Amino acid sequence: MRPTTPSPALPIDLAKARRVAVDAAEAAGALLSAGVGGPLDVRPKGSGGDVVTELDTAAEDLIVGRLRAAYPGHRIIAEESGVLDGAPGEEMVWLVDPLDGTNNVAIGMPVYAVGLALCARAEPVLGVVHDPVSGRTWSAVRGRGTLAPDGTPLALADRPRPGREKNPVLAWTQGHQVKAGDPVAFALRSALERRCARMLQLWAPLVAWTMLARGDIDGMVGYLPEIVDLPAGALLAAEAGAELRRLDGEPYELGIDRPASELGFVAARPELLDRLLETTTKIDQEGGRTRVAW
Fold first, then answer.
1. What are phi and psi of 211, to 5 degrees?
2. How far apart are CA 68 and CA 76, in angstroms?
3. N or C: which end of the chain has fewer CB within 10 A?
4. Burial of 259 by CB count in 10 Å (0-12 exposed, 13-18 middle, 19+ buried)?
5. Is 237 strand, coil or helix?
6. pLDDT tens across 87-133, in order?
7. φ and ψ at residue 95, rounded to 5 degrees
8. Distance between CA atoms of residues 170 and 122, nearest Å
9. CA 209, CA 211: separation in Å to the nearest integer?
10. Dist. CA 248–CA 265, nearest whole Å
11. pLDDT digit string (tens) for 257-278?
12. Helices 205-214 and 230-240 sit at what angle, rounded to 10 degrees?
């Protein structure tokens, strides 16, 4: 996945939608920044070790309210509220992650973000990521590139940072449903760690996506990723020049109607992509076994 052509004609002004999304994300970020320093009511969410706080729901309510005010007919898929229906037959869908990195916030680690994506006919056309810690916001429109926080175009440099040509820095993300003993996740992480300088697991994939778009890291691998934060980050990185493939090396098609099993990805600087795929394609995703000798 590397969008290079503008979105088809849509019944929406994407420039306006970008402004609405940026304003909503930054307002939610201000709410989060004001609350992370105080006591939090941290509650378990599911059985996989995930948690939720009152900040998640407050930030989500704020964002959803602003989206409903601007686009009352659009559907919304929100991290905490689930699917919120829109007008009958509506093809525009917002994805809202009000606090990506709740586990980090719960332990006092300032690594988290707010993400919004707008999809048309299940494909992402707009992505916004706001980092409340630094106060910076990145956004991308399909086929029109990524904008840095100062409003200038953001694109990957022609070459990786010095010393990283053969020793890339990667990020890893996996879905909440992945168990601790998952053989595929273990095999993938282990194989990749042997071929990189560092492997980051930030618990906040939207932060990692912005790092990839800026060139701070060189690649990112996702196994059974969560759909609510994936489109915004992937669009940012792709429009900045990163390339995406499926874990098996096939072309990557990002759509919110696809099952998690088809959303695993390798995203990287173009010159690094094949090297990472040499690793991921050797993992038997049915049982975590290596198919061929190293």
1. -65, -40
2. 9
3. C
4. exposed
5. helix
6. 999 999 999 999 999 999 999 999 999 999 999 989 999 999 999 99
7. -110, 130
8. 28
9. 5
10. 9
11. 998 889 999 999 999 999 999 9
12. 10
Instruction: Answer yes or no: are the C-beta atoms of 116 and 231 closer than 8 Å.
Output: no
The letter for the amino acid at 5 is T
Instruction: Give the C-alpha separation, 161 to 163, whole Å.
Output: 6
Written as six digits, the tokens of 134 are 């630094």
Query: What 3-state DSSP class applies to 147?
Result: strand
DSSP state of 229: T
**225 phi and psi angles, rounded to 5 deg:** -70, 160
Would you state the structure tokens that stand for residue 77, as one six-digit string?
A: 């898929």
Lowest mean pLDDT among 4-13, 201-210, 213-222: 4-13
Buried b (16+ CB within 10 A) or exposed e, 183-212: ebbebbbebbeebbeebbebbbbbbbbbbb
pLDDT tops 60 at residue 66: yes
State the Cα–Cα distance between residues 149 and 145, nearest whole angstrom. 13
Instruction: Dump pLDDT digits (tens) for 155-188.
Output: 999 999 998 988 999 999 999 889 988 999 999 9
Q: Are 224 and 246 in contact (CB under 8 A)?
A: no
Three-state DSSP class for residue 71: coil
d(CA 83, CA 68): 13
Strand 123-131 to 136-141 pairing: antiparallel
Q: Which amino acid is at 10?
A: L
Global pTM? 0.93
Token readout for 148 is 């840095």
HSE, side-chain direction, 13 A CA sphere, residue 141: 17
